[in-house]
């Protein structure tokens, strides 16, 4: 009886092993699948909005997320932020330049409107 159980166990282990390994059929134990790619990349035709970042979802990989997808998204966001920072700096310098001549007016010349006088 013991010998029969050992042989049955060996047959079961061999069957499971062949099923997992593939039994020599195909290219391996599991069929090859294409790696998941980012389905909703950041829009290239317009600036990135908060809704784009909120909707961004990375596909899972064996050890977390695909580094290439995350790097691409972070590079795009860094470029957008640098562009916006440069634009803000340009606008602030233009605003400071526009306000500077008004504060350095000639003495005796006022840029403010006089208050309306009441008729008596």
Comma- or semicolon-separated keywords:
120 residues, mainly alpha, two-stranded antiparallel sheet, 3 helices, rod-shaped
Notes on the protein architecture:
This protein has 120 residues and is mainly α. Helices cover 52% and strands 3% of the residues. It contains three helices and two strands; from the N terminus they run ααββα. The chain has a two-stranded antiparallel ribbon with strand order 1-2. It is rod-shaped.
Structural class: mainly alpha
The low-confidence runs, each spanning 5 or more residues with pLDDT under 50, are none
Query: What's the SSE pattern?
Result: HHEEH
Largest sheet: 2 strands, antiparallel
DSSP summary, beta strand count = 2
Helix content: 40-55%
Average pLDDT level: 78
Terminal Cα separation, in Å? 127 Å
Hey, roughly how much beta strand do the residues contain?
under 5%
Number of helices: 3
Strand line-up in the sheet with most strands: 1-2
Radius of gyration: 35 Å
Principal-axes geometry comes out as rod-shaped
């Amino acid at each position: 009886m013991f010998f029969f159980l050992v042989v049955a166990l060996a047959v079961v282990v061999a069957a499971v092993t062949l099923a997992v390994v593939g039994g020599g059929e195909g290219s391996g134990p599991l069929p090859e699948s294409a790696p998941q790619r980012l389905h909703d990349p950041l829009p290239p035709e317009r600036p990135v909005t908060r809704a784009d970042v909120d909707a961004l979802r990375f596909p899972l990989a064996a050890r977390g997320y695909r580094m290439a997808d995350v790097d691409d998204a972070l590079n795009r966001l860094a470029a957008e932020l640098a562009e916006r920072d440069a634009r803000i700096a340009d606008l602030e310098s233009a605003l400071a330049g526009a306000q500077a001549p008004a504060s350095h007016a000639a003495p005796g010349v006022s840029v403010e409107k006089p208050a309306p006088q009441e008729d008596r």
